[in-house]
């Protein structure tokens, strides 16, 4: 581990993922834990990190080299995180060298940096972590103009203008699916792990053409189960399709007549790609891990910690 | 209690409300319990009812009169209720004498009837109980053409054409507010029992003019709390206003250029009335209890159980 140049952290609400980056920019080691921001008090962050990376820095520091730089993105910089790092306001490039916050540590073998999230004033919106993934995508596409979409619990649609973020919108699509299917009357109607691809696609089509259809027909899922004996897998797939279609329809100003980059690793990413394929200039899909690592490398390079990038 | 002609029941998911109706149509006695449909197995319904009305029928039956007719509306007729009563399909009048289901009882002192709910085929929708309240309103307004709205957990908008129900839509407005404010990330943002009337009104106005604004700006409530220090009461009132405004905007085909009758007793009813006032031909508000009693009286009269009605 003596050739480790820096450590990258993707530190979200539920997980901490750490990557030891070697001199060639390659991932030398990686490790993860469930010590997400959501479970930690401020004093717990440094121990939680050391738990994970101790073997890497122990090996390196026996050689007497300098402290290892660590770059972290995500909710670690939130108000409830290790240290609140103020948002940078859009429009702006996704990562800026002079706005990466150095956080003091008790352990002098590490030099901790947290990347700021981004905020938008009107309409009010925020992100923490997605800006780093956007930076990772833009590393290979520095003059990109188009949309970046990160589907998920809180889907982000980001407008990119010549490599800069000009605006973004968060849709609570994944969380709406979760709360409706777990806590609303629809929970009785969507009790299935099976999938009805046809019902999903039809619902995406309906709701993306007419986004208001989703809210209008939510209760209709229950009614369809009662009156038409619609199956739980049909209702579940249709609920998912209505909510994703609603997001796509509402976000059309982001993707209409533009290229779209989807960053994500979940099973929904191909569904987004499929739904958009015929309606946008181009769709490409980038893996979350690759985008995050590339974005952290941008931060490390801008800070002079990486030997190249 | 010897002049009791019939008993009316409003038997929903969470409560059972019983009314002893005298010869003049007046409420002689009333009682209620938490024995809603949601907590009862099929065999529990009759005992739960007798628990509540035993004193009334005991007094009456000492005189050796016939069994007392009981008319019930609501979820008592659902698949998980006392006895599943098939939906009647719209278009139809809200209550029809020949479609009230007689349910056998072990106790021969009562003659149990359950009013059917209504279904709509396309788009699929259902109601149980609201049709009885609509019938109660129409008793005084037999030729009514316009909208009836019952705001609530599952708000109903009902189109009435010359006293008949021509169609309806259910909006999960109240339940969306509940699941979002209790189970989503917004729960951190809406922790207040206070009310910001200005924020509420502004949100109703925004979302009723552009219903898609609600879904677009949900996450923005969290962002406004983080970035603009929006207070919990402002965010809570705004969440409520966005969802009610969304419902009003989507339901505009029901109320636009028409009279509207609001049936309800919750604190949200005046808010609906206020939001609609300047945009519809007329708005009147009818109390839930009065509408339900009048609707049950329609059923009793059609079945020959009531001496007038």
UniProtKB/TrEMBL annotation, chains A, B:
Among the GO molecular function terms of this UniProt record, one is: 2-dehydro-3-deoxygalactonokinase activity
Report if keyword Transferase is assigned: yes
Q: Which Pfam families match?
A: DGOK
Give the UniProt keywords, A-Z: Kinase, Transferase
The record, for InterPro entries, names:
ATPase_NBD, DGOK, DGOK_C, DGOK_N
Q: Name one GO biological process term.
A: D-galactonate catabolic process
Q: Which SUPFAM superfamilies match?
A: Actin-like ATPase domain (SSF53067)
Q: What is this protein called?
A: 2-dehydro-3-deoxygalactonokinase
């Amino acid at each position: 581990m003596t050739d480790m140049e820096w450590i990258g952290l993707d530190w979200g609400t539920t997980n901490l993922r750490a990557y030891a980056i070697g001199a060639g920019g390659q991932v030398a080691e990686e490790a993860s834990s469930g010590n997400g921001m959501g479970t930690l008090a401020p004093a717990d962050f440094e121990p939680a990190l050391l738990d994970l990376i101790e073997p890497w820095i122990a090996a390196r520091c026996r050689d007497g080299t300098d402290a290892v730089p660590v770059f972290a993105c995500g909710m670690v910089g939130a108000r409830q995180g290790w240290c609140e790092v103020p948002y940078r306001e859009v429009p702006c490039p996704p990562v800026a060298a002079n706005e990466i916050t150095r956080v003091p540590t008790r352990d002098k073998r590490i030099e901790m940096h947290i990347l700021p999230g981004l905020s938008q004033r009107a309409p009010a919106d925020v992100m923490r972590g997605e800006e780093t993934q956007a930076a990772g995508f833009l590393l290979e596409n520095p003059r990109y103009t188009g949309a970046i979409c990160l589907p998920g619990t809180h889907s982000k649609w980001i407008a990119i203008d010549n490599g800069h973020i000009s605006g973004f919108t968060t849709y609570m699509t994944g969380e709406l699916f979760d709360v409706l299917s777990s806590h609303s009357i629809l929970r009785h109607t969507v009790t299935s792990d099976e999938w009805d691809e046809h019902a999903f696609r039809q619902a995406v089509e309906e709701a993306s053409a007419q986004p208001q259809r989703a809210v209008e027909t939510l209760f209709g899922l229950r009614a369809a189960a009662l009156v038409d004996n619609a199956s739980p897998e049909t209702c579940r797939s249709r609920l998912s399709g209505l909510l994703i279609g609603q997001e796509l329809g509402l976000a059309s100003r982001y993707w209409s007549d533009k290229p779209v980059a989807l960053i994500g690793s979940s099973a929904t990413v191909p569904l987004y790609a499929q739904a958009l394929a015929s309606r946008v200039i181009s769709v490409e899909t980038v893996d979350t891990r690759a985008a995050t690592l590339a974005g952290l490398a941008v931060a490390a390079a801008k800070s002079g910690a990486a030997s190249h990038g």
